[in-house]
Specification:
Elements lengths: L10 H13 L4 H8 L3 H14 L20 H12 L4 H8 L10 H10 L11
């Protein structure tokens, strides 16, 4: 995985820092100062190293493991089919029960429809 531009430590530098802390006895504050990070960050990487070894220091995705508010596949298909039948988004939201209830936004339906809409190419546009 590529390291983002704001990352202070690469995988190799994290390993170097925790090895200095474990084998050379460097404390977290000194190690952090030497590597340009904060002491809590140094302790975080040390904890990960002690719990999982070098593999635990690898770059990880920041994408959440689950999206509890995501629309499930069956409701998503129903939303698309109802919209193809020219039903309005507010009515779709009420009938499917995803959003748009009393005082709630219709963003669940409109967001899903936006994601389902194919990108228009130059040939599809009217002149």
């Amino acid at each position: 995985m590529n390291t983002h531009k704001h990352a202070r430590l690469t995988f190799a530098r994290r390993i170097e820092m925790v090895k200095q802390m474990t084998s050379e006895g460097l404390d977290a504050v000194s190690a952090a100062a030497a590597h340009g990070v904060t002491a809590p960050t140094a302790r975080k990487w040390l904890g990960r190293y002690l719990a999982g070894g070098e593999a635990a220091l690898a770059d990880a995705s920041s994408r959440p493991l689950c999206s509890p508010r995501a629309i499930d596949a069956s409701k998503a298909l129903l939303i698309v089919e109802l919209r193809k039948g020219r039903m309005l988004q507010a009515r779709i939201a009420r009938s499917v029960g995803v959003s748009g209830g009393h005082g709630q936004p219709r963003s669940g339906v409109s967001g899903h429809l936006q994601a389902e809409r194919p990108a228009a190419s130059g040939a599809d546009r009217a002149l």
